[in-house]
Design goal:
Strand content: 25-35%
Mean pLDDT: 95
Bound molecules: guanosine-5'-monophosphate, magnesium ion
CATH architecture: 3-Layer(aba) Sandwich
Number of strands: 9
Distance between the termini: 24 Å
Number of domains: 1
CATH class: Alpha Beta
Largest sheet: 6 strands, mixed
Structural class: alpha/beta
Number of helices: 4
């Protein structure tokens, strides 16, 4: 059953599971034999990342987290990105895969990518569950994308609106009256 504030279901549990498996298969093929460090962007990526990680078979892969802030609250992004919590793993000469819930303006991921490259990562690729290319302000592209979507505000499966709805087991479109 849908949460009252959700207008429409965008991806159910079965579709999420299939999408995550498809992404994991591509990552496993691309990173076999490499020194992979997976960096989840807090907090939105945690559910996706937890499911994805259990399907990753790259031997010796490491897990770390980074938290950036550009969204103060509400549904509008500011271009001003700050690192709230940095990675603690050594990323120098490692292949880093950044895992994000949704790529929107690109402000966050362009900043994070530059930041990790400046720490000496050999490569930095981006894996995002959702992508809204129509809203891009920075020239960032994802290397692994679950689903490309229109300009909608979505919640659930880790994605929040003002810290709510992360616990929903599906992804749904939030009713516009909730955030407007
Ligand atoms: P960007 O820096 O690309 O504009 O924003 C990325 C962040 O904005 C995402 O990590 C996510 O936290 C938030 N965001 C962008 N679009 C949505 C959306 O449709 N739903 C939710 N819940 N968060 C979004
Ligand atoms: Mg986020």
């Amino acid at each position: 059953m849908l949460h009252n504030d959700v207008f429409e279901e965008l991806m159910n549990e079965e579709e999420l599971n299939k999408t995550v498996s498809d992404i994991a298969a591509r990552i496993n093929a691309d990173y076999e034999g490499k020194e992979l460090v997976i960096v989840g962007i807090l907090k939105g990526s945690v559910i996706f990342l937890a499911d994805l990680l259990r399907k990753i078979t790259v031997d010796g892969c490491q897990l770390d987290f980074l938290q950036a802030s550009s969204y103060h609250s509400g549904s509008v992004s500011s271009g001003n990105v700050k690192i709230v919590k940095d990675v603690t793993c050594n990323v120098k000469e490692r292949d880093v895969l950044v895992v994000e819930d949704i790529l929107d303006t690109g402000n966050t991921l362009s900043f994070v990518k530059e930041h990790l490259l400046s720490k000496g990562a050999s490569s930095v690729k981006i894996c995002t569950l959702f992508d809204k290319p129509g809203r891009r302000k920075k020239p960032v592209t994802a290397d692994y994308t679950g689903k490309v979507i229109e300009d909608l505000f979505i919640v659930g499966y880790g994605l929040d609106y003002s810290e709510r709805y992360r616990n929903l087991p599906y992804v749904g479109v939030l009713k516009s009256e909730i955030y407007s």
